[in-house]
# Entry
Amino acid sequence: MRTGLSTIQQTLTSEAASVLNHSIAEVGRQNHGQTTPLHVAATPLSFPSSFLRQACIRSHPNSSHPPQCRALELCFSVALERLPTAQNMAPGMESSISNALMAILKRAQAHQRRGYPEQQHQPLLAVSLSH
# Structure
């Protein structure tokens, strides 16, 4: 893992770090070369108690898995399947973080530093998996 990423991960909430770590692990299982913002965006949908999944379910309250959730899962699935796989990755080797994802994380970290003084020590990128 890059030094920059480990530094950023220390500023994440436990939920956000969990989403990022889960995304990185999933990239390895899918044999993708890099963890991208798409991987991170798709991850919360896989957690049953995430706000994203709960929002999908609330959009159609009479169904435990409404068509909107299935459609969103399908969109993410198709987009992830279209990503190139890593050709030369050795088994057990960790994928890298895409430049786009690293830029997002660094931008969020910089934004937090420029924020309000009382928020300076708050965790970065809070991702709520439950409510």
About this structure: The two ends are 31 Å apart (CA to CA).
